[in-house]
Amino acid sequence: MVYFSPKYFTMDDNFSSRVKDVISYSKEEALRLGHNQIGTEHLLLGMLRDGGGKAISILNSIDINLEELRKKVEILNPAIIDTSSLKLNEKKNLHLTRQAERALKTTFLEAKLFQSTNINTAHLLLCILRNDNDPLTKILGKMDISYDNVKEKFKTMINETGAEDIIEYPSSSSFPEEKDESNESDKNPFSSSQKNKIKF
Fold this sequence. Notes:
By secondary structure, the protein is mainly α.
């Protein structure tokens, strides 16, 4: 099982500093809500808490009320109030849910499809939206936040800024189906050769 260490979490060197912040915030959001796992909803809450980056710019461009979005996400997985264990939880490892693990594992593939050497928050948002079976994706879809919609906005942003050199825009079906191998759940999705460690 992939988890957040109470002290260190080894991250992909290609993650932008903002993505690293978002991942750190996601743990704090999970703790704030009294949850013992980090899911895609916490990753999104981490983006909203950060308040910047390409993902937020895309959401603003499609006129998403960010405060309303935050409330809908929190309702999806309501807070568990247990103040007696709050300090204890801060010292615990928080495991990633399968959906969150998959989203983080595939960010480098998403970035590669966009011919990017750096993984930004738009790539992370797109990877979350790829999973149609995730309850979060269903809620986002009702707010017109779909993979194709976000991809089109990202393409427009790239074309206007020239920030990426895209050869061919990806489709939502560009990734191969993920194999369900039980022994994979015990492996860190990030290479052990990449030593960029972030303190919590």
